[in-house]
Design goal:
13 helices, mainly alpha, 79% helix
């Protein structure tokens, strides 16, 4: 039950935050929407809330501020990451206890096996490589090199490498801890070894393509960002589908791989946003402090003239 509730809440909250961000952007572009937002903010109930709970309302406003690293995107990362972690915990509980979602796995696998055709098998054989270590590692190294050489962006390269490599280590630890058998070999297309839960391909796909979307979406126009995120989502979905199609994993293995990868990159992104926010705050402290001391008479007049002239 927890796994299904977690997945539902994850989808609902992420959709709500994305819609809030989109409406905020539209409000900045169109005066009509901005006027409507001002009218809504002036409603008696909202006005009463601002007057009755000024600190709380201000705190919520800061959490949704898109102009600071510790605003909207930190809220988005922490919320999505927490719900993804909850979904992963619920799926793990179902698998270990042979309950809820785990009981649905055999039926889901039989339904997927019944869809097999020759042309789809050939397509899936190509698609599944997008989540394999043989592709993930070279793409990771190549993108890190491009970020460093072309963009001099050491921070993004380090963020990308940290997110992907740590996700790979993390799912291997979980595999050993849970030790879930794979589906029967009679359902396999190919040969597989090791534990089934969670799907390594699904986790790696979310980690690599999700981190790439995070890094690359800071560059380019809004249209480019949408394309990048849609591409990441499509590749992640087809990789997971291919693992089910080949009989290499149960449905809960793939869902848990997606949830684990999403939770982990959200955690890495949140840490990066916090570090960025702290760095900006420290960078502004000397100027702010000097400004305050100058008005308070703590800085000599000569220094004030040099600094603010």
């Amino acid at each position: 039950m927890a796994s299904r509730v977690g997945l539902g809440l994850l989808a609902l909250v992420v959709l709500s935050l994305v819609l809030a961000r989109a409406l905020r952007g539209l409000g900045q572009r169109f005066a009509g929407l901005k006027t409507l937002g001002d009218r809504l903010a002036a409603m008696p109930l909202l006005t009463w809330l601002r007057l009755r709970f000024p600190k709380q309302v201000a705190w919520v406003g800061r959490r949704l501020d898109v102009t600071t690293p510790q605003g909207f995107w930190l809220t988005f990362s922490l919320t999505g990451g927490a719900l993804a972690a909850w979904a992963f915990a619920g799926l793990t509980q179902d698998v270990v206890g042979h309950d809820e979602m785990a009981l649905f796995d055999p039926r889901a696998e039989q339904w997927i096996v019944a869809l097999r055709t020759a042309w789809l098998t050939d397509a899936m054989k190509s698609v599944t490589w997008l989540g394999s270590t043989a592709v993930i590692v070279p793409v990771l190294v190549l993108m890190a090199i491009v970020l460093v050489i072309r963009g001099r962006d050491w921070r993004s390269a380090a963020l990308l490498a940290t997110g992907v490599t740590s996700a790979i280590c993390l799912y291997n630890i979980v595999k050993v801890a849970v030790e879930r058998p794979r589906p029967p070999s009679t359902l396999w297309i190919g040969d597989y070894s090791g534990a089934a839960f969670p799907s390594g391909h699904a986790t790696q796909a979310v980690a690599l393509y999700g981190m790439l979307a995070i890094v690359l979406s800071t560059r380019g126009s809004p249209v480019v960002r949408v394309v990048v995120w849609m591409g990441a989502a499509v590749m992640t979905l087809v990789v997971g589908a291919s693992r089910l199609y080949f009989g290499a994993h149960w449905l809960t293995d793939v869902l848990a791989g997606w949830a684990l990868g999403a939770a982990w990159i959200a955690f890495v992104a949140a840490v990066a946003l916090l570090v960025t926010g702290q760095g900006r705050r420290r960078a502004t402290l000397p100027t702010t402090d000097l400004f305050r001391r100058s008005w308070a008479g703590g800085v000599p007049k000569r220094d004030r003239m040099v600094k603010f002239d």
